[in-house]
Structures are given as C-alpha cells and as structure tokens.
Design brief:
Blueprint lengths: L2 H26 L11 H26 L8 H33 L4 H24 L9 H34 L4 H19 L3 H16 L13
This protein binds fe (ii) ion (2 copies).
Amino acid sequence: MSEATRRRRFLSVAAVLAVGATARNAVAAPPRSKPAEVNATEDLMREHGIIRRTLLVYEESARRLGMPEEKAPVEVLAQATRLMQRFGEGYHEKTEETEVFPRLMKAGQQKELVQVLLEQHAAGRKLTASILAATSGRDALTQPQPRAATARQLLLFVRMYQPHAAREDTVLFPAFRELFNEKQFDELGERFEEQEHKLLGSDGFENALKEVDQLERALGIHDLARFTPPEK
Ligand SMILES: [Fe+2]
Ligand SMILES: [Fe+2]
C-alpha cells in the first residue's frame, strides 16, 4: 500500500468515527431548547391514530356480538362510540371540514376526493347515531337481531374509515401541505393547537389517548405484542 493510499484510508476511517461520535453525542446530549412543535398534518395524522384504535375496539365488539355465547360489551361500545362522536366527528372531522377541505376547494384541488370524504363523514355520523341508540336502554344488545344489526353497522363503519383515513394520510394531507410555505404552515399548526384546546380542553389529545387505551384494556386487546403472529 502506498503512503498516499494508507493516508486516504486513515482519513476515511477517521471521518466515519468522527461522524459516529457526533451522532452519539447528538443522542446523548439533552435538548438545548424545547422539542419541535407537532405540525398541522402530523396533528391530523395522530388523530387518525386515536380513531384507528377506536376502530380496533369496534372490531372486537363486533366479533363478540357475533358470538351468541359472549356477553355484549355494551358499556365499552357505548363509550367508544361517544369517543368517536366527540373526538372523531366533533373535533377531527370538523377540523377537516372547516380548515382543510375549503382551502383545497379554493385552490381547485382534490375536488372529487373531498366530495367523497364529505359523504363519508355524513354516512359515519348516521352509523354512529344508530350504534349509540342500540347501546342505550336496559336490555341493550341482549337479543340476536339487534346484536347482528349493530355488529354489521360497526363493520361497515370500520370498512369505510380504514380507506378514508388512509386516503387522507397519503393524498389529501400531502396536497393540503403543499398549499403553504413554511411560515404559514407553522402558523397553521399553532392555530390547530388553539382549536384543539378550545374544543377539547387543554389535554384533549392526551385524554382521548388515555380513554382509548382504557377501552382496549377493557376488551383485553391492549397488549400490542399479542398481535405478532406466533413463530412456527
Ligand atoms: Fe375525514
Ligand atoms: Fe381524517
């Protein structure tokens, strides 16, 4: 190996080590200022996370309703549906309808998609009202017919909302984000946060997260590791 080659190799190894050391320091060092704010689309996507976890509660409820020997999880389902109504419809969808859809429409973008999404919000609200009605009353969900009807409505809701949220995450929100420059987008994030506090209280997201976690626990579907397929 020539002296020049040896020196080049030494320098490249030293460079890799230096980068590694910098990365380690970056991880180990405490943050110098407060962590970065959650931006507007990240906020909407985290809300989808709460909604998706509520859908898991819906799915498990539907499964139990379909088994005559299982007791209907009336209380848990009623609470999950109220969470969907308050957080999903009253807050998340409202934000989309007042802040996201109108701006895209004004920019002449995603018109057909927005139309379908609006129809789905309306269809979801009808299902929610019907599921809520089925969970109220002293002998709610004790008879086979209402059990089957509610299970069907829950699965219709899940079937609609999975692609709904997935399309918003991958098509609508990226298109929405492109309407703003960085400064405007930061300001929008702050506005979303103010809205959240106004409509849901200061810990709106955290409380919804706690609530959905409790609902999962009540049905025994809270342990994430149990969703991993067993090794053969
Ligand atoms: Fe939506
Ligand atoms: Fe959404």
